[in-house]
Amino acid sequence: MSDFVMDWEREGRTGVPEAVLCASKSVAQVEAILKEAAMAGRRLLFTRLEPAAFEALAPECRAMLDYDSLSRTAWCGSLPPAGAARDGIGIVAAGTSDLPVAREAARTLEFLGFSAPVVADVGVAGLWRLMRRLEEIRAWRVVIATAGMEGALFSVLAGLVDAPVIAVPTSVGYGVAAGGTAALHTALASCAPGVLAVNIDNGFGAAAAAAKILNKM
Amino acid sequence: MSDFVMDWEREGRTGVPEAVLCASKSVAQVEAILKEAAMAGRRLLFTRLEPAAFEALAPECRAMLDYDSLSRTAWCGSLPPAGAARDGIGIVAAGTSDLPVAREAARTLEFLGFSAPVVADVGVAGLWRLMRRLEEIRAWRVVIATAGMEGALFSVLAGLVDAPVIAVPTSVGYGVAAGGTAALHTALASCAPGVLAVNIDNGFGAAAAAAKILNKM
Amino acid sequence: MSDFVMDWEREGRTGVPEAVLCASKSVAQVEAILKEAAMAGRRLLFTRLEPAAFEALAPECRAMLDYDSLSRTAWCGSLPPAGAARDGIGIVAAGTSDLPVAREAARTLEFLGFSAPVVADVGVAGLWRLMRRLEEIRAWRVVIATAGMEGALFSVLAGLVDAPVIAVPTSVGYGVAAGGTAALHTALASCAPGVLAVNIDNGFGAAAAAAKILNKM
Amino acid sequence: MSDFVMDWEREGRTGVPEAVLCASKSVAQVEAILKEAAMAGRRLLFTRLEPAAFEALAPECRAMLDYDSLSRTAWCGSLPPAGAARDGIGIVAAGTSDLPVAREAARTLEFLGFSAPVVADVGVAGLWRLMRRLEEIRAWRVVIATAGMEGALFSVLAGLVDAPVIAVPTSVGYGVAAGGTAALHTALASCAPGVLAVNIDNGFGAAAAAAKILNKM
Amino acid sequence: MSDFVMDWEREGRTGVPEAVLCASKSVAQVEAILKEAAMAGRRLLFTRLEPAAFEALAPECRAMLDYDSLSRTAWCGSLPPAGAARDGIGIVAAGTSDLPVAREAARTLEFLGFSAPVVADVGVAGLWRLMRRLEEIRAWRVVIATAGMEGALFSVLAGLVDAPVIAVPTSVGYGVAAGGTAALHTALASCAPGVLAVNIDNGFGAAAAAAKILNKM
Amino acid sequence: MSDFVMDWEREGRTGVPEAVLCASKSVAQVEAILKEAAMAGRRLLFTRLEPAAFEALAPECRAMLDYDSLSRTAWCGSLPPAGAARDGIGIVAAGTSDLPVAREAARTLEFLGFSAPVVADVGVAGLWRLMRRLEEIRAWRVVIATAGMEGALFSVLAGLVDAPVIAVPTSVGYGVAAGGTAALHTALASCAPGVLAVNIDNGFGAAAAAAKILNKM
Amino acid sequence: MSDFVMDWEREGRTGVPEAVLCASKSVAQVEAILKEAAMAGRRLLFTRLEPAAFEALAPECRAMLDYDSLSRTAWCGSLPPAGAARDGIGIVAAGTSDLPVAREAARTLEFLGFSAPVVADVGVAGLWRLMRRLEEIRAWRVVIATAGMEGALFSVLAGLVDAPVIAVPTSVGYGVAAGGTAALHTALASCAPGVLAVNIDNGFGAAAAAAKILNKM
Amino acid sequence: MSDFVMDWEREGRTGVPEAVLCASKSVAQVEAILKEAAMAGRRLLFTRLEPAAFEALAPECRAMLDYDSLSRTAWCGSLPPAGAARDGIGIVAAGTSDLPVAREAARTLEFLGFSAPVVADVGVAGLWRLMRRLEEIRAWRVVIATAGMEGALFSVLAGLVDAPVIAVPTSVGYGVAAGGTAALHTALASCAPGVLAVNIDNGFGAAAAAAKILNKM
């Protein structure tokens, strides 16, 4: 069990607790970490836990987890009471294909004590869809935007709102857009200032950064 | 002089006459080609003729050319009479930095017998700039759009007009946008259908394709 | 149902209706979109619907669709009457491996009300194959060309016809051609002017652009 | 003068006024924009104005500008009174070679009405240099960090502070680090959550985003 | 059997015996090599022998091998007596996901007659985890470090110890870190001198180089 | 002077004598090598000797060299008598911009004792130019072809002749063709078998390989 | 059947008959081509026919083919009589993992009427393995060399023999060598002149080029 | 002057003192650092100090430095007495073009108290050059090897000696070898174990690592 060392102090030090990226971990490793959290009485967030990997966990482990298959996230331990959730952060998804990443951000925020609405299917090919939701979006203090393909939504949004836009490029697309690099480069090279990028498909990171911003206000 | 063979038949065969890309040719080569055109009584378009290269040409060669330093284009021979220029094509430039490429397209179209207005500085960071020109743009049958950095203009435009959009990504930008690949990938991966891409900074190619489209109508 | 917002106005605004890229959507999402289209009495095109995904749809959903497995396209709703289909667009495929992409373009055009012949297996390794079909191709007003590997067909074709050539690089190939980038770069860097590129394997986009061109004539 | 259209409303709409990226603009274009700002009674920020380009401006233009050669920034018009500058943002530079980018951020913040200290030469090869400044850094509400080469500072910093870290990768380095991509990828792939990236060398963008964050608090 | 030629003299010539990379070899080829080693009375190391490939070997082949599924390594023949193992080399793993590569290095060293401890889960997001093990690490004469994602551990470690650091970037990560290139570039561009890199996931190569270093002391 | 060791035996061993790539050598190094060749009574080929570097050589060194500025090649020592030059190799250049590389091949062949005609300006945008020279080209036993941009000439040529085609991609082009990678990939991914590639702009290497082929006949 | 057009004249025109790349063709397409060849009484080579695809063919199709699973090649029709096979070409494989590609070259040569020995497992990590076969290799008129990983064999070989070396980089390797680009770049950038490259894993292309060379002697 | 913070403790902590990379520093910054070192009575190494930058330093600064233009290195302060220099490290340079990088390593080692011979011009195109020096090279405990182009020397060398080989890929080359990535990938993917890589052109880093190795013996 000495192969992992949880950084339980991280929340106190950085405002965001450690989370477990399950993508390259074995089932046995995930189970061991989960049990250590349980023994320590800690709550813990798991990301990129594929449905097949969740199903492969021991029943008592699955029972400890609140799992969501669309976002592939899970947590053990209790959440802050619903009424206590803070607002100020919102999430925009360019298309329905971006919803898994948007939901990863929303679930992470829920775990961190924030309540974040998701506004979906507002890609710029039909600008009116974004415009009719603009008033709602403008009320947020931090905007998380998820988009794949060419990611033009990031620039359009940043030119319309006065909140910072955290861009999460997604790996949705094919050809030159495969893997998400085209959308990432759009986020980084945006002609509208105020766009901040995280790694491709990193809904968790966007949520963590947004929480850090609000925590310091 | 046997080192080049002008394809004078190209206009008859493809609708667009051969043009001379000067970027990797010596001054002596450009002069020889120009003289051959003169002797053959042909008119000819030169692209990427840098001001320093133009200045290095023999005076009698310079005298034969109508040169524009912003677009680095030149031609010898007469144009179609101004009144005869056809319309239907228009050019949009996202920013002032994209004007050299937009002008290369406009000059090429002028040489090919078309009159094409340029609408400049309509980048999506300030959408209102594009919106107030939209009615004008919607009247065109082919839209040529030039943009660098992340190139989000291509997607926004293609979602708003019913004409085909020929996207010319420009090498304007730095970091991940240096060289123009980010804008090119936006054009290719656009979420709005109907975007057609040419090579980075290739205003000439966009104009040639637009002319081919109108020629076949 | 609030996670997607169909842009039903797109056809009126841009001449081409919205289509659904199924590649990164779940079966449930595709079914929901299909049902919304049915309820709205709208016809709708689906692309990249893999045979396995089609088979996974509910029977009543499959029954609503006209599905073609080679091109992985489907549509619901009625087509324009066959006699009403417009012509002027043709499709060239360099090899038999490029036929799925060529067929995606052909099916899209059929959905959009155009009739487009496909001329196949005319790769430049045996130029005579292209030459014997040249008269037929020269009659088209817009040429869609699909080719993988090195994509030399794009340049040869553009030097022989006076119609614009919409190049669809395909992901057919291996080594440096894997993924289609080599063919894409050939389309963009073609020495023959008048080549316009869409994303790799994007037969749909080529068809949409071709339709926009003819719609504006 | 019709070739550019200043987006004067941008500050009201997004909280950050438009700035002029001079890198790909001619001297004449910069002069024209400066004069338009003067006539409109607007203050305006210029970035990437190389010393040689600044020297090439007409004397009356130079006289209107507050120019800094290290950061290659300039502005016309008055600043907010010094005493009114808001704090809460700080800047960290990994090495002395990163100072031009750090200064671009600091000057942008000054123009936007913020006062931001710069903590320099705290690269992780000698961790004690960062540790002895840590208390000071922890007091900031937003940290802007500039680093080239491998950019390891971003991860170390984000693991030590509870403020969001805006990472500005710089093009300082050679070999695999040339151009700044290695540092950019470190920012995006950081094992410490809460790192937000802007484009390589984009000190302006980092400052604009930081200002948007504080403006919304 | 003439298709492979074992380089049995390699250990005498270079200090490290030949090993067999199984990744692109068929089961039949692995079996044939194993039998040749047995007949020659040689001991031999196999790397990248996937569990499925190991299971596919003939039972008498499996019986000859000491196999470890986490590191996907196997060997035939006897090891040096345990008490004779030399020390001086240690291995650090940034996270639990890097353990397979760390174990490949440890098993290779065991095969080569070295005993190497593994210190795991000391990623820089929680620096205290590294610091509390620092005294132990500083006692080693060669440090092998494995890390994925952005690989910042390499730089931090090299700034804290006086032994050479052999960096093994791992393919752990996603987006810009997928495949391990981001971590590799960090190793190569480290601001702390004394970092030496091997190929991504190449725990075997790191161990071989470390053994060569100690063999020459 | 002990810093270089001429491989005078190379011609006997491999059929092609060593040549000196001057691009990254100092003037002093080139002079020293030239003097060593003179003292040894050896003839020697120099490539990539830029005009400025040639001018910087000491007068007695320049006097020893037969220099050609277009191809940037030089040699010292005598050539085989003109009448003795062997034929069977020919060179094709797609455009006039490819002539420097074609000439490097031709000069290298001359130095190696071969006489090679150059057929220029036969790019595939005007196929008739190639067709009218085809009979001449078909008589060669080895074809060296130089082309930049998209390099489609390689495929067309290889489909028309029965000799092997050695493709020399050139760095002529811009955008996606900048640096020559697009043409290189066309050579490697050609749909016509029998294309063999050398490095970008490597006219010398193509000539050396062609000479080796004929030497072995 | 109209979707493919066999280029039966290719052998007469170029010396090498058309072959069928099966990788991206459906079983039905392969069957149709095979039947057309049978009806035309033509012999035909198939490459990249995976064992699973071969097994999926109709029994009467399989019966027509001479199939080899290691090289994934097949042919229909008769070969030249064994005694008539020409020699002069030989194949070198750096490691056993490169044998499938080496065998694709050998089988192609057999189909084309050549007999080519394969010398395997002569990688440069143990130079003596190459040296002891050198006399044999030096007798060949064309050397085909296959190597993955870093491909250093190409340079060493070309410095030792006077025949042209056709380098076939293979996709054997991982990390920076994954996909074969590292070996390809070694072939292209070799310090020993006379190396000619084909695409990664393209044993067929190397054999076709070698045959063209010998056919012209 | 507070913009840089020398890490004077680094030698005690890591065995190698801090050095100053001058490439992206201004003349004023270099002068200030030099003066601080002088005031502190410290000796200090400067790398990548171009001749023009050295000439631009104030005369009193130049007088403090021992400068070498080939390697672009300089130091202030005294060296260890010549007789005290330790041996055990040697340097190999594939070609004369690699000598600047080899010399950077040699000068760094001299500064660190080691004496390292340089064996030059032993590229693998003429293996005999390496073989005749092999006995000398085999006596070293650490081999530093510099090579550009395809870098095959790294693999050949590592297969012949029992010391670790620190590979320094150089940016010597063109086409696919431009910038040094091809040689770097050869070092990383070498088929001979025991190759350790540093960044392209990083002679300093290779020397620092070699010194760390010997310091720990």
Structure description:
8 copies of one chain form a homooctamer. Chain A has helices at 10-14, 27-40, 51-56, 59-64, 99-112, 127-131, 134-138, 152-158, 181-188, 203-215, and strands at 19-21, 44-47, 65-68, 73-76, 89-93, 118-120, 142-147, 165-169, 195-197. With 217 residues, chain A is α/β, with parallel strands linked by helices. Chain A has a 5-stranded parallel beta sheet with strand order 6-5-7-8-9. Chain A is globular, with a radius of gyration of 18 Å. The termini of chain A are far apart. The model of chain A has no long low-confidence stretch (mean pLDDT 95). The A-D interface holds A 10, 13-16, 19, 141-142, 158-164, 166, 184, 188-189, 192-200, 202, 204-205, 208-209, 212-213, 215-217 and D 10, 13-16, 19, 141-142, 158-164, 166, 184, 188-189, 192-200, 202, 204-205, 208-209, 212-213, 215-217.
Helix/strand layout:
Eight copies of one chain form a homooctamer.
Chain A: H1 10-14, E1 19-21, H2 27-40, E2 44-47, H3 51-56, H4 59-64, E3 65-68, E4 73-76, E5 89-93, H5 99-112, E6 118-120, H6 127-131, H7 134-138, E7 142-147, H8 152-158, E8 165-169, H9 181-188, E9 195-197, H10 203-215
Parallel strand pairs in A: 1-2, 5-6, 5-7, 7-8, 8-9
Antiparallel strand pairs in A: 2-4, 3-4
Domain PurE (chains A, B, C, D, E, F, G, H): 87-217
Pfam family, one (chains A, B, C, D, E, F, G, H): AIRC
Keywords (chains A, B, C, D, E, F, G, H): Membrane, Transmembrane, Transmembrane helix
